[in-house]
Amino acid sequence: MNDLDHDTSDDLPEGPSKTQRKQEMHALQDIGEQLVALNKARLAQLNLPETLLDAVIEAKRLTRHEAVRRQMQYLGKLMRNVDAEPIQAKLDEWNNVTRAHAAKFHQLEHWRDRLLQEENALSELVAEHPHIDIQQIRTLIRNAQKEAAANKPPKSSRALFKLLREAILNQNESDPEPA
């Protein structure tokens, strides 16, 4: 029997392709870059292995482009020996919390701007948030408009934002979750 008749490729287990391995390595390196961007308090919350933590701290210290690039590759290599799933999950959680916080902040700014510019905005706000102190809001709106007309610092506008933040966010936190 001829050796060419035997196909030995069927006997070998199929592993990930070179492209897949490279993509996985780049994904681990990206996680390493996210770790470098974190502050010390957040890094401490992740309970990273000492070698990985040392490499992250070293990457923060480096300034030259080529040195940073090599350190990022090293971080990617170290990440191969670590379960990256919980690290990525925590990073995603922190990013989503930040986005959600920014969205709430923009919503509050939008309400404040509408209250200062539109007549019917107060009635809409009261319809959405009936527990809110209407009298205090009216006073702050009036004072903020006077301050803006006189080119004074926006003390009342800031106070209005603070009141909205306390009233709306406290209500949102006390609302039961929808089933």
List the keywords.
179 residues, mainly alpha, 2 domains, Diphtheria Toxin Repressor, domain 2
Give the SSE layout.
Layout: H1 18-37, H2 40-45, H3 50-61, H4 65-79, H5 84-117, H6 121-128, H7 134-149, H8 155-174
Quick overview of this protein structure:
This protein is an all-alpha fold and 179 residues long. It has eight helices and no strands. The model has no long low-confidence stretch (mean pLDDT 84).
| Broad CATH class of the largest domain | Mainly Alpha
Number of strands: 0
Overall pLDDT level? 84
Number of helices: 8
Written as H for each helix and E for each strand, in order along the chain, the element string is HHHHHHHH
Fraction of helical residues: over 70%
The largest sheet is: none
- Give me the CATH superfamily of the largest domain: PSPTO4464-like domains
CA(first)-CA(last) distance: 70 Å
Structural Rg: 28 Å
Q: What count of domains describes the coordinates?
A: 2
Share in β-strands: under 5%
Shape: elongated
Unreliable stretches (pLDDT < 50, length at least 5) are none
Query: Helix/strand/pairing class, anyone?
Result: mainly alpha
CATH topology (fold) name of the largest domain: Diphtheria Toxin Repressor, domain 2
In CATH terms, what is the architecture of the largest domain? Orthogonal Bundle
